[in-house]
Design brief:
Length: about 180
């Protein structure tokens, strides 16, 4: 929607309105996009994190960081696609890349260098899901931005947006409607 508004504003500023004769000659179906390359305006692709909301349609999606054992994509759901200990790339599978204690990308490896990332549903980066307390952006680093109980971007802050037991964006709220997601690095 935002992209369409930007494109429409760009066409009107350039002097060609959607109902003008020039626009109708170029593309009668959707005149604003048909004439953009001809008038020299760059087409703009805006990145969106909504593509991560496809619930497993992506290879790097590892599930939702939620305490709700009934959400289908929750890592706490032992029978779910991502919470099962038999999931091929699941965090609860000790033999998978993301769940292994010995993999450099394993969330349970205390020396992991490239563990999975946590992304809030509003697009906020929330750190790395790792047991490595020395990794600067690990959620177990108590002095780091993402592991501190006082940081607004921490899932460990009980008063923050992502750690409160009452926030719909929180990983610790069992009734959260938009919990953070975990992405494979």
């Amino acid at each position: 929607m935002r992209l369409a508004q930007l494109l429409l504003v760009g066409v009107v500023v350039a002097g060609v309105t959607p109902g003008s004769v020039l626009a109708q000659e170029r593309s009668p179906v959707f005149p604003t996009l048909g004439i953009l390359p001809e008038i020299g305006l760059p087409s703009l692709e805006l990145p969106s994190l909504d593509s991560y909301d496809l619930s497993g349609q992506r290879e790097d999606y590892l599930g939702e960081l939620s305490e709700n054992p009934y959400r289908p994509d929750s890592l706490s759901n032992p029978f779910g696609r991502y919470g099962s200990r038999y999931a091929p790339n699941g965090l609860n599978n000790p033999y998978s890349r993301a769940g292994s204690r010995f993999s450099p990308a394993g969330a349970t490896n205390p020396y992991a260098t490239d563990p999975p990332r946590i992304i809030g549903r509003d697009g906020t980066y929330l750190g790395r899901l790792s047991t490595n307390p020395y990794l600067p952006d690990s959620v177990t680093n108590p002095y780091g931005r993402y592991g501190s109980p006082y940081s607004p971007d921490s899932i460990r802050n009980p008063y923050g947006r992502y750690g409160s037991p009452y926030s719909p964006y929180s990983a610790t709220n069992p009734f959260a409607t938009r919990p953070p997601i975990v992405i494979d690095p």
